[in-house]
């Protein structure tokens, strides 16, 4: 049961290289926090990365919301990621046919495959998406988080879709780092990582169907390994302090879970 094992122990079960690295980062930095850097200016994103860097394992971007994108920005971001030892994660949610995904992943001004060690994908169009990501040009070590459930109220995803997504993930364990979901779907797979968004302390949701749970709840009741926090940190007066607080709450919950 993955919920009772430490990240250090789980690292050796990981078949995906990036997942193995994530386990090691979590175990050495004592953090399971992924920040969602949903900001539209490159300087704001870089400042956030510097501020929260010591407290996070993953830095999640939506690169296509950036207004003043330039390739130099990625160079800076990579430097910060290296300094603070966290992983760059582009939340692209690929959902097209394989050929289109391949172009979206490796081409365009963003060239995602050249800098993002991690990306997200929908399972909607099936294995072609994963074959495309596996076969594309780009970083040698790459990982995918497959989306099996969402934090959105009244999501159209049902139990069958969720189960089929987990099944698909298990056919691509070399490529899949983990699954994005809201409940413990794969407790018998210690090498896979559960990533859970929809985490905030001061709010239960927004006006656009987002739903929030607390750090303790997602770790102890929902099986989250990594929690994604966006506005809970980015809208805070002191993002570094907020990140530290989320990190500590999440880590304490994890320690409580594995005893
Ligand atoms: P916030 O904490 O500000 O609500 O941000 C949540 C982040 O997680 C967003 O970047 C969103 O795209 C992502 N996300 C989510 O909220 N729910 C999901 O089910 C999947 C996501 O990727």
Automatic annotation (TrEMBL):
Domain (Orotidine 5'-phosphate decarboxylase) ranges: 32-246
Iron found in the keyword field: no
First-tier enzyme category under EC: lyase
Pathway(s) where this gene product acts: Pyrimidine metabolism; UMP biosynthesis via de novo pathway; UMP from orotate: step 2/2
Enzyme Commission identifier(s): 4.1.1.23
Active site: residue positions: 91, 93, 96
Superkingdom per UniProt: Eukaryota
Keywords in alphabetical order: Decarboxylase, Lyase, Pyrimidine biosynthesis
GO molecular function: orotate phosphoribosyltransferase activity; orotidine-5'-phosphate decarboxylase activity
Entry similarity comment: Belongs to the OMP decarboxylase family.
Part of the intact protein present: 49 to 307 of 307
Residues reported in the UniProt entry to bind substrate: 38, 60, 151, 210, 230-231
BP-aspect Gene Ontology terms: 'de novo' pyrimidine nucleobase biosynthetic process; 'de novo' UMP biosynthetic process
Catalytic activity: orotidine 5'-phosphate + H(+) = UMP + CO2
Name this polypeptide is given: Orotidine 5'-phosphate decarboxylase
UniProt keyword Lyase, yes or no: yes
């Amino acid at each position: 049961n993955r919920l009772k094992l430490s990240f250090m122990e789980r690292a050796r079960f990981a078949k995906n290289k990036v997942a193995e690295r994530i386990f090691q980062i979590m175990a050495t930095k004592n953090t399971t926090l992924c920040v969602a850097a949903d900001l539209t200016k490159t300087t704001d994103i870089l400042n956030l990365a510097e501020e929260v860097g010591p407290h996070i394992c993953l830095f999640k971007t939506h690169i296509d919301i950036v207004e003043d994108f330039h390739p130099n920005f990625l160079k800076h971001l990579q430097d910060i990621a290296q300094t603070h030892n966290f992983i760059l994660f582009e939340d692209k949610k690929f959902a097209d046919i394989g050929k289109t995904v391949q172009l979206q992943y490796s081409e365009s001004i963003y060239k995602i495959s050249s800098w993002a060690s991690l990306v997200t994908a929908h399972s909607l169009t099936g294995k072609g998406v994963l074959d495309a990501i596996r076969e594309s040009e780009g970083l040698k070590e790459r990982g995918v988080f497959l989306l099996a459930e969402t934090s959105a109220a009244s999501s159209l995803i049902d139990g069958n879709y969720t189960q089929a997504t987990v099944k698909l993930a298990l056919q691509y364990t070399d490529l899949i780092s983990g699954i994005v979901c809201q409940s413990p779907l794969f407790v018998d797979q210690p090498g896979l990582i559960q990533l859970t968004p929809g985490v905030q302390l001061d709010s239960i949701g927004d006006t656009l169907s987002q739903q929030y749970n607390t750090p303790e709840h997602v770790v102890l009741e929902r099986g989250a390994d990594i929690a994604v926090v966006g506005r809970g940190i980015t809208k805070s007066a002191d993002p570094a302090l907020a990140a530290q607080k989320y990190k500590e709450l999440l880590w304490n919950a994890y320690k409580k879970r594995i005893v």
